Amino acid sequence: MVKREIVSIDEEKCDGCGLCLPACHEGAIEIVDGKARLKEEKLCDGLGDCLGECPQDAITIEVREAEEFDEEAVAQEMAKNKRTQKKSPSPCSSARVSGGGCPSAHFNNLDTPSDKGQKQSQSRASKATEQKESHQKPTTVQSSGTDDINLSIKSQLNQWPVQLSLLPEQAPIFQDADLLISADCVAHAYADFHLDLLKDRKLVIGCPKLDDNNYYIEKLTSIFANNDIKSLTVALMEVPCCGGLKYAVKQALQNSGKDIPVKEIVISVKGEKKE
Hints:
By secondary structure, this protein is an alpha/beta fold. It has 2 domains: 2-105, Alpha-Beta Plaits, CATH 3.30.70; 108-123 and 153-267, Rossmann fold (3-Layer(aba) Sandwich), CATH 3.40.50. The chain has helices spanning 20-23, 71-87, 113-121, 124-136, 186-189, 193-198, 213-226, 243-256, and strands at residues 2-9, 29-32, 35-38, 59-66, 108-109, 140-143, 149-151, 159-160, 178-183, 202-206, 231-237, 262-267. It starts with a strand and ends in an 8-residue tail after the last strand.
């Protein structure tokens, strides 16, 4: 043990966004239970490349007794990470791989300051007026066929990432949020996905047929338990495998002990809404 500079992570401030992971070139940081933590003291060189990446200012450098920095241990750790990533089905599976650096795992709030101000100042009356005007002024650009039209609309997505496996277990945008939990295929089948389902909601997507539904239950349980979510909308396809996502949400709510209102929406394979 020697007295030296080493990274210190304040778990109270950390929201598990993962932005510090790719900034740490030694692979010394991992996400455990939604919080960034040092794997081992000997992996941290104390230079603090990760400091500027933390949006919550949860990372600092302190001087204390710690294991000496070990370059050989770092080399072994980085080699292990590379082997783990090669075994992963996708290079963006880093949400579950310590030291991963996939940009898709970097949590971003896509609301601009002007968007936030507009939302906060908008009264119910003005919203009603906007809705009325939107019906009077369709967004149709041109006809492209007998039954089809081309539309020009603004994306309603206001956060990134959206995949359940990449989302942090706790984040400010989940607080007091209306959360849309959607099967992957819904957005492709339902033409009005953005304006009818996604607008003013935060998004989580997944496929219980292709992924581990037990993992979904665990992740959703943590998200429900660690955030004050206002409502849940579960959007499913009518196919049987989508029932797994519905079950995961139900089980996660029970496990979390939270009482959150849930609305279910089913989309047919022809893209029709079957509430």
